[in-house]
Give the backbone structure.
Amino acid sequence: MPRLVLKDFRPVYVVGVGLHPYQRSSDLSFVTLGLTAVRSALLDAGVDWPQVESAYVGTTRLGMAVARPMLRHLGVTGIPMTQVENASASSASAFRLAVQEVAAGFAELSLAAGVDKVGTGVRAESLTGLEPPDRGLTFPASRYALLAEEYLAGSGATARDLARVAVKNHRNGSMNPFAQRQKERTLDEVLADEPIAGSLTRLQCCPVGEGASAVIVGSGEAIDRLGIARERCVQVLASAQGSERLYGTKSFDAELTRVTTADALAQARLTPSAVDVVELHDAFSIEELQYVEAMGLCPPTEAAGRLADGEFDIGGRVAVSPSGGLIAMGHPIGPTGTGQVAETVRQLRGEAGLRQQPNARIGLTHLVGVGAVCLVHVLAAPGSGDD
């Protein structure tokens, strides 16, 4: 039997989005963070909480059963609630589950949200009873620093080219009121900042703080019945998810990105050239260069040159991480995936303000999670889908 994809079911739309600003650790409870985002999404959609029929909440550092103590303050309506943990891709996975539920007709409106506070989440890999191959000596920044050195050597790019990723994304984040880092940085500032590993300085690495994001997805029937404004409803064209295989390369997450993005674009019947806005997993600056090539947004080894030419700027050929990306927007982990969706929806509605990519019609969101897993979603501006 052929594999079913989103287009085999009824159309699904993002009807509301909301965020709590990403920030350093604070005394705010996760309940306050999460409710701020969810209430904003409800207001944005113009719907009431009792009309939401299911909820998926992505989180990584808060322990068990996060959804109920948070969402009960909106009203105890008896809806199914599911907590989702998938590392950096947690709320991206929650979004995929909510989309699938609405597409299949099990719900008319579903909430996908993410919330996290700074904490000491335990990676299950450390509990397997097996000694890791690196004996626990490698941490994420050192791995990506090694990948950066390999990429620079093979592409002819330089450390200055690598730092330009951070310059662009800090500039974008300076225009985003929800970003953890809202200060524009020069190339010299990025290069001269505190070294973390290899060519990577602190300003080229994402801050891990706290925050929340929420997205409400709905069917066309719900939009009509509840009087939701169709001109603000963004269609979800594709949802793809995969996990790593043996690729014969050190950069398995780039190869996983290549495969998963190709799957998502094939589902949407689009080519990479159709994409106007991309929110990708740039926890470290090298990732943006690797992933835009893996996604087919430019040929191999050409990302640094295209970046320097402004192709990935807001107003360029394709805006990459107009939110500021993980580097400037921040990476609170649980909320990051639905936060990417919220930014992309605003772009496709034309509501992104100073960050607006002109004439944005197609958006793509991408996250890699430890393990490794990868999720890619393709969204279309109101009136651009094939509903």
Notes: The two ends are 25 Å apart (CA to CA).
